[in-house]
Amino acid sequence: MKPETDVMVVTPHPDDSEFGVSGPVARWIQEGKQVVYVVCTNGDKGTTDRSLSAGALAEIRGREQLAAAKVLGVREVVFLGYPDQSLEDTAEFRKEIVRLIRTFRPRIVVTSDPHRRYLWHRDHRVTGQVVLDAVFPFARDHLAYPDLLAQGLEPHKVEELLFWGAEDINYRSDITGTFDLKVSALRCHESQVREFANPHVEVWLRERCMKMAEGENFKVAEAFHRVELPK
Q: For the whole model, what pTM was predicted?
């Protein structure tokens, strides 16, 4: 059995975690916490470059994600390998996330908000909903997936959920000390950064994070909807 993990980040695509939570991830790791990534899709659709095949793009994005994780100090990256734009809210997908929660036993799980309205990638909505259901109640209940029990994967109660991309923000995390690491990790996703309309990535990102910190006593933040789960 793997050692218990402080934080598990479940990201729909390579690069979403760098956009959504890499500032807090860098701080948690500096504090000595263990962080693992679960990357649901291989990102094989995310380009306007018609010279790239889906397979070649997936390989590139896998390498980029590993490089970004290394910059931050993420302990392990698990690639589920689903094709981009293919995620569905299925029993199989949910069970896979439950298996990983019971394997890594995180205190905090971070993912994309399933309830963001209108313009939101379908993979983001589906991932958020599947993770929410996996955390509560499926990972918690011993009678859910008895075959996982037979494999030695005991139930696990996650203490806290953080959703990035939320419209209903109730928690802001100070990333003043880790903003530069966030930028460095995001720049590892070269195939995606060059797709941005704004070539000044750091300036755009700082303005975005400053807006998220409005009303707080720190300058830059990442913002979430936070849920504390019953014990």
A: 0.96
Closest CA to 156 of 102, 218, 220: 102
Q: For residues 135 and 144, what is the distance between their CA atoms, to the nearest angstrom?
A: 12
Residue 165 CA from chain centroid, whole number: 11
CATH of span 7-228:
3.40.50.10320
Higher pLDDT, 147 or 201: 147
Q: How many angstroms separate the CA atoms of 224 and 227, rounded?
A: 10
Q: How confident is the model at residue 1 (pLDDT cuts 50, 70, 90)?
A: low
Q: At what angle do helices 22-30 and 179-187 cross, to 10 degrees?
A: 120
pLDDT of residue 135 exceeding 90, the answer is: yes
Phi, psi of 145 (to 5 degrees): 55, 65
Token pair, residue 7, equals 């934080």
Helices (DSSP H) in the chain: which residue ranges? 16-20, 22-30, 54-72, 91-104, 122-133, 146-150, 179-187, 190-193, 201-212
- Residue-range domain boundaries for the chain: 7-228
pLDDT at 145 over 80: yes
CB environment 14-30: b (16+ within 10 A), e (fewer): bbbbbbbbbbbbbbbbe
Three-class SS state of 7:
strand
